[in-house]
Amino acid sequence: MMASTYNAKDEDGHITVAGPGGGTLRSRKPENTAFKQQRLPAWQPILTAGTVLPAFFVIGLIFIPIGIGLYVTSNNIKEFEIDYTGVDMSSPCFNCSQNFSWNSTRPCTCSIPFYLDQPYESNVFMYYGLSNFYQNHRRYVKSRDDSQLNGDSEALTKPSKECEPYAFHDNKPIAPCGAIANSMFNDSLELFYNDPNGTKVQIHLMKTGIAWWTDKHVKFRNPGGNNPNLTVAFQGTTKPVNWRKPVYELDSDQENDGFINEDFIVWMRTAALPTFRKLYRIIQKKKDMVLTLPRGNYTLEVVYNYPVRSFEGRKRMILSTISWMGGKNPFLGIAYITVGSVCFFLGVVLLIIHHKYGNRNNSADISN
Amino acid sequence: IDCNSLRYPSLYKPGQQNLLFNKRQFFLCTLQGLGTSFLLFFIPYGAFSVMVKEDGSQFSDQQAFAVTIATSLVIVVSVQIGLDTHYWTAVNHLFIWGSVTVYFAILFAMQSDGIFGIFPSNFQFIGAARNCLSEKSVWLVILLTTVVCMVPGLAVSFLRVDLFPTLTDKQNLRRVRRTSSRRSAYAFSHQQGYGELITSGKNMRMSSVSAAPSAGKSPHSSNWIENMLKRKNEVLISGFGNKSK
Fold this sequence. Notes:
The complex is a heterodimer.
Chain A (H helix, E strand, L loop, with lengths): L7 E2 L5 E2 L24 E3 L5 H28 L2 E5 L10 H5 L9 E9 L7 E8 L6 H5 L3 H4 L3 H5 L10 E2 L2 E2 L5 H4 L5 E7 L5 E3 L10 H7 L10 H4 L28 H7 L7 E8 L12 E9 L9 E7 L9 H28 L11
Antiparallel strand pairs in A: 1-2, 4-13, 5-12, 6-11, 6-13, 7-8, 9-10, 9-12
Chain B lengths: L2 H5 L5 H4 L6 H26 L13 H23 L5 H21 L2 H6 L9 H6 L2 H28 L3 H8 L5 E3 L12 H5 L22 H10 L4 H9 L1
Protein name (chain A): Cell cycle control protein
InterPro entries (chain A): CDC50/LEM3_fam
Keywords (chain A): Cell membrane, Cytoplasmic vesicle, Disulfide bond, Glycoprotein, Golgi apparatus, Lipid transport, Membrane, Transmembrane, Transmembrane helix, Transport
């Protein structure tokens, strides 16, 4: 920091240094500007009672209404959840959960009746939820090849090493490779409304518009350019080990087939926590102010393909409406109310302390 | 303005007695870091367990979680630094606001379509920042996390300044009317008077604090200083100050 080549200091602080030849070099004194002499104009905020205490009160007064708003909004969101794993003997899906094998050609179906006691308006979102499923396991998350999913033809036939052991099967490359793709959720859920006069009306479920726009249009692309024939584009590859159908038969709709199938995209976006829900279908609101889902009896028909009993997992179907802050999330509302009240209370406490003890020390002498 | 440092040479004491950066302060800083990390993870964790976006599509995924926590972190740290900065020169403004701006610039650059096109396997977070930071609930989470991390520190600092003001604090309070001052960022150590004294090593271990830029960490040391002052009722440096001139 301080050089040791100080020789002498003149009265006015002018530093001279002896040069190698014996003469004096020109002065190395830095310029006398505000920037170099560290005399810049500065704003000096000081923590006085006049600034800190109002800040606490203001924070409290802002947060409490926000919290109340969030909590009320969250409470107005309607949500219905039904667990269809089939753990109990009495559950309709118990048989399906017991006899399971990957090779069974005839899928097991079960149907669960339920009752909605509140009518649902506007768009209703249908989610499937899994519990105890660690999509955030490190090795699992790495097990994918984004180049292959982006339609790169070279990566299609040579998947990356991260996908091992789900990269090759029968000497053919797997498309899509990796453990995430291999464990894709493949239950089919259908919703039926039991009319008061006894007929079962199938509720129309939209299967597009469930993935992020950036995912569907940028991140995931089918190989082979714009070749509409996906069977040709995926030639030379094989389906993942645990899938029943290859990737180019995921949907008859061209826009939703192959890698850009939205269910596949939604599954590939790995969840952060072991209990998660993913968007499955959207029930769009009907015209003319008709209720999307009126109150009454419904039936959930499940094609039970996905085994979760082996790791004590659970499967659920969730129906939910949406608000400006997303789904039903009481945590934020309660947290805001709590923090706001704590801040306000703290402000009051600090005010009392400041009044009683604060000003005593300020007049003490600090000079020599 | 600079003559304040000559008039109150006892303000030099904390630096020379190594009161502002010792093991205890370091330990307290570590503790504060631990607490902040804890809050930075668990508040978004609580909020994200059932989050969905405004259009209903799923949201509780790893990448959005990561972006939320990272953004909260950068904002909390910047606010913390801002609160600790005692002299806001133009340079300070540039670096503090600049850090936050550059963070967002880099975040969006790393998660843009362009760089994903070049290196798909390395930049997997494409689209995460755009989708995540356009949600109102994410900003509410970030705001909540910031406030929760700042409030305890602020309360403690305020209590220290109010109940146990250090000499520096009292000095500052006397000048509380003046909002702008041509103040150097160095803590009182620039006039030529003490230069040779310090470099010649006559003083004991010169702590790094008095040369530390920007932050004068006086509120943290108030307890130490008060204890030292009460125990030793002599003023060493004031004698120094008088003799060397």
